[in-house]
Amino acid sequence: MISIQNLSVEFSAKTLLDNISYVINRRDRIALVGKNGAGKSTMLKIIAGLQRPTSGTVAVAQDVTIGYLPQQMEISDSLTVVEEVRKAFAAIDDLHRKLDDLNQQLASRTDYESAEYHRLIDDMTSLSERIAMEESENMEAEMEKTLTGLGFDRSDFCRPTSEFSGGWRMRIELAKLLLRRPDVLLLDEPTNHLDIESIQWLEQFMVTKAKAVVLVSHDRAFIDNVTNRTIEISLGHIYDYAVSYSHFVELRRERMEQQMRAYQNQQKQIQDTEEFIERFRYKATKSVQVQSRIKQLAKIERIEVDEVDTSRLNLKFPPAPRSGDYPVTADNVGKSYGNHKVFSGASFTLKRGDKVAFVGKNGEGKSTLVKCIMGEIPFDGSLKIGHNVKIGYFAQNQAQLLDGELTVFDTIDRVATGDIRTKIRDILGAFMFGGEASDKKVKVLSGGEKTRLAMIRLLLEPVNLLILDEPTNHLDMQTKDVLKQAIQQFDGTVIVVSHDREFLDGLVEKVYEFGGGKVRECLGGIYEFLEKKKISRLQELELSKSPSASSVAAAAEKHRQSQKPTQPATAPDSSADKQTAPQRKSYQEMKEMEKLARKARKKISEAEAAVADVEQRIADIESRFAAGESTEELIRQHASLKKEQENAMSLWELAVMEGEQFGV
């Protein structure tokens, strides 16, 4: 569909991409990987037509549509969420014109058995399905399903977009892009503004509904679950493998090892040959062998080892000064803004050396609790910071707060004090800002480079409580691995707010889940936490409650509380826990839940029957196609049934989502 030929890009006489060629095919799901600043975002902009290369071409097949989601974008705030998302269907008139054109082409052709004729039928069927979806009630269902999948509540749909943070507005743009169903999706760090539940939904969407995808992401678990091809950009060149990222890393290492062994063997052969030539060059009796070896040496095709990008971040946090045994103790902490309760009743104790994660949907209070710990905002309850606790805080928007007009060196020089000022060059070199890179202006840095620069601030003075709010956004995989290792070796206490499952795996031993106005402690790592969520229907109910099920959700929460041990799991002296008596659901609440569950089961059963019926009718028509029967009436019936199938599938998915709320 898209052919990239001999593409080169230069910035300030420096080659970023050097004579690159590859093709994006239908159903390709490509992970575009490489270190920060390698040219990944530049490549997406060029494919999207937003930037011109220095040389080379990007050829896009006729009628191929491209959807592009950048890392940052300007977003208007004049409409509600639903009104903004409905813009995704504004191209309906263009689709009708394309369908009319295809109908005219089919009417004028008689080569019914040709590949071109069948391609036209496929295109017309696909286009008819798209128009049918956009013109039917199914459009509203698709919008609702996409928005809820990306973390919006139904109560958010009619709210003005101006009330949402930048991250949530990016989700709105992502929803519009997914609803357009372009032939090629170009996504630049789509998970940066998503929580774990939304990332898992997006994974499922990409696997089941997306067409071709080119994806830049530093979330290893996400790209492994979504992609089937990996293109690495390194030192201006690309390495293209038709495998997932994890498999690519293994194959890349094996290929480098094989190359190195072959190179070393050849070098030994060359050295032996040269030594023979030099030894017997002037002996007449060996002249024939010498000439033979010289010809042999000239014919050897030299093996080259792929150039490896060896620049690497060297990150190590300074030794942590000893703090008290309990750096943070929270007792019945809560936070509200007017009538809106963000969370309440948070009670926990962090011991010295604990490494914990704050996870949950955006807007549930993770960053808010961090601000409470930092003393930046008032709160309810008691929150004590232990003796001699020195906090190092990396905010979610830390990189955006940098002054773009300053150089890298000046940015650090302005905050460094004492002896550290004499070591600024060394520190910058350890963070891959050595040499001329330290004189770059901040505004020309990539997102990952800005994040690295902001991270240096944490090294300027020793701390014993690290609070990192989404530290991996924009960091490449190698840098994330180095950061993870540095945190593992850090001997202080760590709180990490993150949605990156791979980063949290093996790093934290406790997870605090934010949701439904509560903060719950879950012992174990991130994958243990996710596994518990899969088998715990009541927790899923709390995470995905809808207005129609609010009373049931409240009953489920009471039931969950009744199943807890009477002894508090954390903060043994918490008076809030002592005052909370276990509660059981009333008979009326249980009866109401059973009634709603029966209705949900019936709706799912009816939806499944409808899907099975339409699929059987489609199969009957396709068997007639296979037998050589192909009339315009049959084609129209097939397109109509495909539309009906899409509607039935959407209704079934909504029924299943609704059923999950009641444990069905």
Automatic annotation (TrEMBL):
InterPro entries: AAA+_ATPase, ABC_tran_Xtn, ABC_transporter-like_ATP-bd, ABC_transporter-like_CS, ABCF_ATPase, P-loop_NTPase. Residues 549-592 are annotated as: Disordered. Pfam families: ABC_tran, ABC_tran_Xtn. Keywords: ATP-binding, Coiled coil, Nucleotide-binding, Repeat. The keyword Nucleotide-binding applies. This is Probable ATP-binding protein YbiT. One of its GO terms (molecular function) is ATP binding. Residues 2-260, 328-541 form the ABC transporter domain. It comes from Paramuribaculum intestinale. PROSITE patterns: ABC_TRANSPORTER_1, ABC_TRANSPORTER_2. Residues 563-585 have a biased composition (Polar residues). Belongs to the ABC transporter superfamily. ABCF family. YbiT subfamily. Residues 85-144, 246-276 form a coiled coil.
